[in-house]
Amino acid sequence: MHIRGRIPLIIFIIIIGAILGGLVGQLIGMALPEGIVKTFITKSISVGFSPIYINLYIMTFTFGLMLKFNIFSILGIVFLGYLLRWVY
């Protein structure tokens, strides 16, 4: 299959891997006691831009995109990418 046919699948893998990995990281972070390990697991990097507000007096639009990655979301992306390589 050509790369163009795989682009939606690759985007899907990135999104699902990040969501599942981030969820696992937060759940593990809630179970850990305070300390350096919990800080490392729950620390996230935000990528994106702040919301832009457009007020047209009869309606208001808000545009923004913010992605938060932690160590488990990156591991989730890598794991699902590896799984995709063997399944697809």
Description of the structure:
It is a single chain. By secondary structure, this protein is an alpha+beta fold. The protein has a domain at 13-42 and 68-82. The chain is 60% helix and 24% strand. α1 (3-31) packs antiparallel against α2 (36-42) and α1 crosses α3 (71-87).
| Estimated share of beta-strand residues | 15-25%
Q: Give the SSE string.
A: HHEEH
Strand order of the largest sheet: 1-2
Overall helicity:
55-70%
| Quaternary structure classification | single chain
Distance between the termini: 10 Å
Global shape: flat
Largest sheet entry: 2 strands, antiparallel
Kindly state the mean pLDDT as a whole number? 87
Number of helices: 3
Q: Structural class, from secondary structure content? A: alpha+beta
**Radius of gyration computed on alpha carbons:** 17 Å
The unreliable regions are none
Number of strands: 2
Write the layout of secondary structure elements.
Elements: H1 3-31, H2 36-42, E1 45-55, E2 60-69, H3 71-87
Antiparallel strand pairs: 1-2
Helix pairs in contact: 1-2, 1-3
In short:
With 88 residues, this protein is an alpha+beta fold.
